[in-house]
Amino acid sequence: MSESVCPRRVEGSQTSLRRAVRTGSASRLLAAVLAAVGALALTACASDGPSPPAPAAPTSQAPASGAARLVDPGEFAAVIAEPDRVTVNVHVPFEGDIPGTDLSIPFDQITAQAGWLPANRDTGLAIYCRSGPMSATAAETLRDLGYTDVVELRGGMRAWQADGRELVGI
């Protein structure tokens, strides 16, 4: 029994849910939850839909010194602005994105969802979670998959926000 976790999110459903929770309306909350579940069901990774491509074999060895280069929010902002870098939110459950995030793949689903990642293992990746532990696990997995250029946000989204930067989608 294998459960697939789709690396896509439904935008807007969280807004309705938060609005219902703020107003305290049980019927609005139930309607928002049902709308969110329905939207997820419509966009979920269906078994008859396209599957992510199979992961390619590693093209080079990952650095032996560590799984990723840890950087502060200022440097992370510069790194994710690089045009060819892929930014991945590995935090679960979803608690927002750093602007410019390309993918959301749960930290514990990196191997299973590797088909969504660049086939070229030398492509730069920037990863983050909420506070650090999930992205550290993801960095190790990415290293094991052969990715050679992984940058990790030290302190995650908490450090990003403490540095005065915004999250989107929340």
From TrEMBL:
User: What sequence ranges are listed for the domain Rhodanese?
Assistant: 105-169
Which residue intervals make up region (Disordered)? 48-67
* Domain of life, per lineage: Bacteria
Span-the-membrane segments of this chain are none
- What InterPro entries does the database record attribute to this sequence? Rhodanese-like_dom (IPR001763), Rhodanese-like_dom_sf (IPR036873)
Extent of the signal sequence? 1-46
Gene3D superfamilies xrefs: Rhodanese-like domain (3.40.250.10)
Recorded protein name is Rhodanese-like domain-containing protein
Taxonomic classification? Bacteria, Bacillati, Actinomycetota, Actinomycetes, Mycobacteriales
